[in-house]
Sequence to fold (212 residues):
Amino acid sequence: MSELVLGVLVSGSGTNLQALLDAVKAGRLSAKIGVVVSNVATAKGLDRARAAGVPAVVVDHKAFADRAAFDAAVVEVLRAHGATCVVLAGFMRLVTPVLLDAFPHRVVNIHPALLPAFPGVHGPAQALAYGVRVAGCTVHLVDAGMDTGPILAQATVPVLDDDDEASLAARILEKEHELLPQVVQWIAEGRVEVAPGGEGKRPRVRVRIERR
Ligand code: GRF
Fold:
């Protein structure tokens, strides 16, 4: 099987990117991070990429007429660096079919909630406000909706009585850093299979791993 080449998209601090970089370095992730792309020139994730010797490219969404034109520019950068799989790691833009069709079933997102509960940008705060006792994170394939694509894996954390948004988000983020490299490794190992779901149905995902 040819090596998985990741294009990682970030908008902010990039701690999930760091988890991927660390996993590659430690030999826990058999993939190459070919390029990191950000829509935000000041994103700390870009510094993390540069520090690891990974090409860091800014594609400023404000320079494009619409999301599709922005995505086309991102696809060009990803292809130029040989990416075969795209990871949205704190990437705060909705993606369009332009990106999704360029990497069919190979665009992955990490979300800080147990989907389908609490999609969007306030997952931990909404979990807290609702009063759930268990929260967590989800790694899923991206489709044209917001946080709606087929789920690959989830990890849970307890919600404690004295949690605030920051403490809960931090506990979830720690789990994200474990789960994301793990799922990308499953993809690298060819363990993730996606079958069309049929007319009007979601694609079905099978992850061939031993469940404990
Ligand atoms: C993470 O909570 C991720 O789930 C969400 O945005 C946050 C990004 O954190 N999509 P980082 O940039 O990886 O540090």
Summary: The radius of gyration is 17 Å. The longest strand covers residues 31-38. Residues 10, 12-16, 89-90, 110-112, 173, 176 surround 5-O-phosphono-beta-D-ribofuranosylamine (CB under 6 Å).
